[in-house]
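Technical annex, item 7. During the second reporting period the consortium partners agreed on a shared format for inverse folding records so that results from different sites could be compared directly. Each record opens with the tokenized structure and is followed by the designed sequence. A conforming record, contributed by the partner at site C, is shown below for reference.
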């Protein structure tokens, strides 16, 4: 994925820094993600959302 992103950004894929993109993705909320999925006609059940939320809450927060 890094090589693809590097070429999409117009730079050398070996020198592409993925840290800013990962920081942006870190601020993504489940609500924002589900709204984007809804825009692409992907539907999730309530049980799937609750399961995903439980798994995400189990990830330790790094400060």
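Designed sequence (site C submission):
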């Amino acid at each position: 994925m890094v090589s693809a992103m590097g070429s999409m950004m117009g730079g050398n894929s070996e020198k592409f820094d993925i840290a800013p993109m990962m920081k942006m993705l870190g601020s993504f909320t489940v609500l924002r993600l589900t709204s984007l999925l809804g825009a692409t006609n992907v539907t999730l059940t309530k049980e799937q959302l609750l399961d995903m939320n439980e798994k995400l809450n189990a990830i330790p927060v790094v400060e």
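The mean pLDDT is 74. The chain has four helices and no strands. All partners now use this format for quarterly exchanges.
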